[in-house]
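subagent[fold] <- orchestrator: predict structure for attached chain, return tokens only, no commentary.
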Amino acid sequence: MEPAKIVLRHLDGRISKGYSMDFSPSKSSLHLRQDPTGASGDKPIALRIEELKAIFFVKTFEGNRDHHERRRFLGEDKLHGRKIEVTFVDGEVMQGSTMGYDPKRPGFFLFPPDPESNNIRIFVVSSAVKSFRYL
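subagent[fold] -> orchestrator:
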């Protein structure tokens, strides 16, 4: 399994960056490490999913500062499921698309509306969602 390059947004506002090889939407935790191969001997840090707001699967950790990400859909956008809007418990609002949402599950994947986004997909933790609606 290839290590996933991820950025974690914690409920307390912290941000962590690194690699994970064991994330699963059905697991209650994941391990984060700084070296994708583990060859440096860094020890993976265990994190509980319920302490997170979202997991961003990214192209790069730096992103592209010159790109102004579009946060809304255009008519010609390719969708992965249905358009949605999520409001997090901290007040942040995010639009995207999802293949399915069930508040009883630990979370769901959200795909950003901008195909040039640094975010490939985002795993939204259900306990961090204040409200959800289809667009």
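orchestrator: received. Logging for downstream: The CA atoms of residues 108 and 124 lie 5 Å apart. The first strand starts at residue 4 and ends at 10.
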